[in-house]
Known about the structure:
By secondary structure, the protein is α+β, with helices and mostly antiparallel strands.
Amino acid sequence: SGNYYNQGEVRKKELEQSCSVLGIPASDVTVIDHRELPDDPAVEWDTQLLATFVLKHIEANNINLVVTFDAGGVSGHANHISLYTALRYKLFILCLSLGCHVFVLQSVNLFRKYISILDVPISYLLPGDALFILTEEETEQAKRAMQCHGSQLLWFRHIYLLFSRYMVINSLQLL
């Protein structure tokens, strides 16, 4: 939960509500409470510790596909970048022993991040392994899911909900 601004319990509930909107049952949501994994945009998590947690979760749930952040963390958030680093660190184990594939969500510059659907032609022309364009219904569902995270909906996240390409289009690269 990380307990950023002492909101760990609130954020756990928001996560479950958001997942429910997306059709993910609470029983499939795992929240890790560990003092060395604080929810803090300035803190890089320990690669080995995080990789151990992620690998255990993948093995316990027979997961064969993981989608995570790339080295830019989409927003430069240190925790997001740590997830990428941990998966890259354990990638050989995932691929060789578990048959698990890892895709990373490609970070884009600030201009592209906020041109919404207008980024489709640009993304289509650039290299990538998968390009997902959400339908209007899927976009509205994603917005409803994001709105469940009330404790994190600062002014700039409202702009994100309105204009971010990530609410409509996502480019993935096989790690």
